[in-house]
Amino acid sequence: YEIIAGDWSSDVCSSDLSQSRYAAEVMRKEKFRTAASEYLNRDIKIKDIKLEIENNNQFLDFIEDFVHPEVQSIRDEMIDKTLKNNNIVFVEIPLFFEKNLRNSLSKHGKVFVVSTICGIDKQLLRAKKRDKNLSDKMLNLIISRQTSDEDRVAGSDFIIYTYGKSIVTGK
């Protein structure tokens, strides 16, 4: 039996949404900026959004509520398109557990959840490497909103431990 796989990243899609790379298919940067400005009752520039999140945690909830439905719509479309030519699709979703997305993916067929567990030290290093301008305050906010490793292990079908050597385990 041959497995032909495709992949798709929610993280890349979210980034693209905020930078409006898919202008014709998704919301434009101006639509996002306008909605953020209306939420805050003042004008805000895209470049100032991280700073606003650091000072207003509810603003992050607003952003997630605004962006995630669009990401889910694009993800569903891409999964369906990928499954036409592939036996299996790997979908990378950073907030899979936090947004309770297992059910939204099960409509596409059997879902196997694979989690990567690396420990908090490596997690912090990776976050700082991805965004060199990430403040400690923002980093702590992000980490505080993430599902614990214990809960991710409990909710996963397979776990990849990356403490040094990668070890894959299944339940």
Summarize the structure in short:
With 171 residues, the chain is of the alpha/beta class. The chain is 51% helix and 13% strand.
Characterize the structure shown.
The strands form two sheets. The protein has a three-stranded mixed sheet. Helix content is 51%, strand content 13%. The protein has helices at residues 10-19, 29-40, 49-55, 57-83, 102-106, 120-130, 136-144, 149-154, and strands at 5-9, 88-92, 114-117, 158-161, 167-170. Helix 1 (10-19) crosses helix 4 (57-83), helix 2 runs antiparallel to helix 4 and helix 3 packs across helix 4. By secondary structure, it is α/β, with parallel strands linked by helices.
Find the structural class using helix and strand composition.
alpha/beta
Major beta-sheet overview: 3 strands, mixed
Q: Pick out the low-confidence regions.
A: 20-26
Report strand %.
Answer: 5-15%
Number of strands: 5
**Portion in helices:** 40-55%
* Intertermini distance: 22 Å
Mean pLDDT: 77
Shape: globular
Number of DSSP helical runs: 8
Strand order of the largest sheet: 3-4-5
What is the radius of gyration? 18 Å
